[in-house]
Amino acid sequence: ERAKRRKSLRSGVLTAKLMQPFLKCFKDDHVSVRDYACRTTYKLQIRDEAIRNLLLECVEFDPIEKVRYSA
Fold first, then answer.
1. DSSP labels for 5-58?
2. Is pTM, for the whole model, over 0.85?
3. Taking a C-beta distance cutoff of 8 angstroms, is the pair 28, 36 a contact?
4. pLDDT tens digits along 50-68
């Protein structure tokens, strides 16, 4: 089961179980969590409409410049 999840993450596929917690990271109070969510999206090459919308929201409205650049 763990190996299957790792393989899914490496291929850029987020399972339904992981998607909701991951989406919440883009709205987290901590800058480092939002920044890491943006960077992880890039590293895993995740192509999901909900994530793309959250990235655009970060680019436009996040008060922290580091997060905007990561998005």
1. HHHHHHTTPPPHHHHHHHHHHTT-SSHHHHHHHHHHHHHHT---HHHHHHHHHH
2. no
3. no
4. 999 999 999 999 999 999 9
